[in-house]
């Protein structure tokens, strides 16, 4: 294993897997830190944690445990993958986890670059944009768990870190890898936010950090890394393999993000079977996973079970029960749904939402995910077992017809 990655959620990890696979690396994503060594042909290993929103100390502990395992597999470079919308709170977990990893690896410079231009996430003057909106006006300010209310990554990261935060501006990135390396050397701070607007900027950054032991970012920051390994003759010529899966299909969505809500609306408008879950009914035990899975298994086409709701509805239920309690209950609901669906014969399962997908993968007890071809930017097809394939869609990713497209891609 050459590149060792730690993802702070499951969809984000598969997004990174997608970038690395497209660039020709053999990638396996693991659910949590494995207890056994990796297969010998894995070139990039991604340990997916559900650490984005857990208490800081627990996120740090799990990330260090993942790092130890990746080091034991022989990795020479490490990547901490978080969300392209920098999902975190003023307490963490991006800053504290990065600090712990940097200390363990004795990294003297660590770049932070969540940019992912293919999905409209760009960084300019240290500020993160989603399309033509600042992060804090993109809808992410209403996220149920990590409302992003400040688009200045330097300021937001500084709240979470013991140290100050430097910056490499776009004008430097445009001068190429050598200029970026010089700018990194000249920084007063160990943590440095790097601007990136285009894929080309991400490739330059990837080249510039070829010798840095630790880097952090969204999946975009990995764009240039396979090329670094290939240039050293370290990648196998054969590349990744993929085998699709026929059979019953179902989709589960606990994502309340704007893109998912559009995809749910499209699915309903297309006349596909859809069951809306009222969180109040789940909290009160009036709607159970058995009801939802039973309904889905009785449908033709692509049944979708969703709790996706708009920000007002999310706020209302959270104010009655607390955000964590609702999320916990719904995550458990979707995990149980997934178990019942797979037990009932579903072979293609599509999930929307990072927390939701993490809960589902953990609930299914799947430990090793082989990354396959891209469905939409940031979302690959995944083989999770002999007869099970998955698509784990990040809340804000995917075209409007994502559910239908994923069902088809998983079969192919
Ligand atoms: N209707 C709802 N009201 C409140 N919280 C919800 C609702 N539906 C889902 N949730 C919770 O909101 C969180 C959404 O996060 P996630 O699954 O990561 O989606 P995304 O990828 O869009 O951020 C989950 O923990 C989920 O259980
Ligand atoms: O970088 C991204 O945007 C994604 O890879 C990601 O991490 C998404 O997380 P969720 O929106 O919670 O699915």
From TrEMBL:
Keyword list, A-Z: ATP-binding, Carbohydrate metabolism, Kinase, Nucleotide-binding, Transferase
Domain Four-carbon acid sugar kinase nucleotide binding: residue ranges: 251-403
Catalyzed reactions: 3-dehydro-D-erythronate + ATP = 3-dehydro-4-O-phospho-D-erythronate + ADP + H(+); 3-dehydro-L-erythronate + ATP = 3-dehydro-4-O-phospho-L-erythronate + ADP + H(+)
Keyword presence, Nucleotide-binding: yes
An example Gene Ontology molecular-function term: ATP binding
Enzyme Commission number(s) from the entry: 2.7.1.217
InterPro entries referenced in this protein's UniProt entry, alphabetically: 4-carb_acid_sugar_kinase_N (IPR010737), 4-carb_acid_sugar_kinase_N_sf (IPR037051), NBD_C (IPR031475), NBD_C_sf (IPR042213), OtnK (IPR050007)
Annotated ranges, domain Four-carbon acid sugar kinase N-terminal: 3-224
Pfam families (alphabetical): NBD_C, SBD_N
Domain of life: Bacteria
Family of this protein: Belongs to the four-carbon acid sugar kinase family.
Function, as annotated: Catalyzes the ATP-dependent phosphorylation of 3-oxo-tetronate to 3-oxo-tetronate 4-phosphate.
NCBIfam families tied to this protein: OxoTetrKin (NF043035)
Name this polypeptide is given: 3-oxo-tetronate kinase
């Amino acid at each position: 294993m050459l590149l060792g990655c730690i993802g702070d959620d499951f969809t984000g990890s598969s997004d990174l897997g997608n970038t690395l696979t497209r660039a020709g690396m053999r990638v396996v994503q693991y659910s949590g830190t494995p207890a056994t060594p990796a297969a010998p042909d894995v070139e990039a290993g991604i340990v997916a944690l559900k650490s984005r929103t857990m208490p800081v100390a627990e996120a740090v502990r799990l990330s260090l445990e993942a790092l130890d395992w990746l080091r034991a597999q022989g990795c020479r470079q490490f990547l901490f993958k978080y969300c392209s919308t920098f999902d975190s709170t003023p307490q963490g977990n991006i800053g504290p986890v990065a600090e712990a990893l940097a200390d363990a690896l004795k990294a003297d410079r660590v770049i932070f670059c969540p940019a992912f231009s293919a999905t409209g996430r760009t960084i300019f003057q240290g500020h993160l944009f989603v399309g033509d909106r600042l992060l804090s006006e993109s809808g992410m300010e209403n996220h149920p768990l990590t409302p992003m209310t400040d688009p200045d990554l330097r300021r937001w990261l500084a709240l979470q870190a013991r140290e100050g935060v430097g910056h490499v501006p776009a004008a430097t990135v445009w001068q190429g890898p050598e200029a970026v390396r010089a700018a990194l050397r000249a920084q007063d701070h160990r943590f440095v936010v790097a601007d990136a607007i285009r894929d080309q900027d991400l490739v330059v950054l990837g080249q510039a950090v070829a010798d840095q032991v630790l880097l952090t970012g969204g999946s975009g920051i990995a764009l240039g890394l396979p090329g670094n390994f290939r240039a050293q003759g370290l990648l196998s010529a054969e590349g990744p393999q993929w085998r699709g899966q026929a059979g019953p299909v179902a989709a589960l969505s606990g994502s309340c993000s704007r893109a998912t809500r559009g995809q749910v609306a499209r699915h309903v408008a297309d006349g596909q079977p859809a069951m809306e879950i009222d969180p109040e009914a789940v909290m009160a035990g009036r709607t159970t996973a058995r009801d939802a899975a039973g309904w889905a298994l009785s449908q033709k086409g692509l049944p979708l079970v969703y709790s996706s709701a708009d920000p007002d509805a999310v706020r209302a239920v959270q104010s009655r029960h607390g955000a964590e309690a609702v999320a916990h209950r719904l995550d458990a609901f979707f995990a149980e749904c997934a178990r019942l669906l797979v037990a009932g014969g579903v072979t293609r399962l599509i999930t929307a939402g990072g927390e939701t997908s993490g809960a589902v993968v953990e609930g299914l007890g799947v430990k090793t995910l082989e990354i396959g071809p891209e469905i939409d930017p940031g979302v690959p097809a995944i083989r999770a077992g002999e007869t099970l394939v998955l698509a784990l869609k990040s809340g804000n990713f995917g075209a409007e017809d994502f559910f239908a497209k994923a069902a088809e891609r998983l079969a192919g």
